[in-house]
Fold:
Amino acid sequence: MAGILQLTAPEPFLAITPDWVVWPQTVIRVTGLLEILGASALYVPRLRRAAGLALAAYAICVFPANIKHAMDSAAEASAFPGWWYHGPRLALQPIIVWWALWCSGVIDWPFHGRRKSPD
Structure:
């Protein structure tokens, strides 16, 4: 869903993009497309592992934008959506990385041997 929004309504994503990102509008569109392709590739057995690794790397790479969004929001007392959203979002970022790796079969932790790969 976020990938589609990055292509159709990139303004909120541009607002949280750190200043050091070169060509932010292009980066937002390209990353939106890559997010859609990565999610779609999870359905293709021979691409699943690469997709999981790419989506995990993507989640790590967007972490600076999430931090910037949280800091900008914290600077404004009336900012929406506020810390109730940003705190859990930042804390759950490692779980998003894990989820991409687990869904793609790259790792099976903490469920060692409980799941068979759909390949």
Q: What stands out?
A: The mean pLDDT is 86. Residues 14 and 25 are 7 Å apart (CA to CA). The two ends are 25 Å apart (CA to CA).
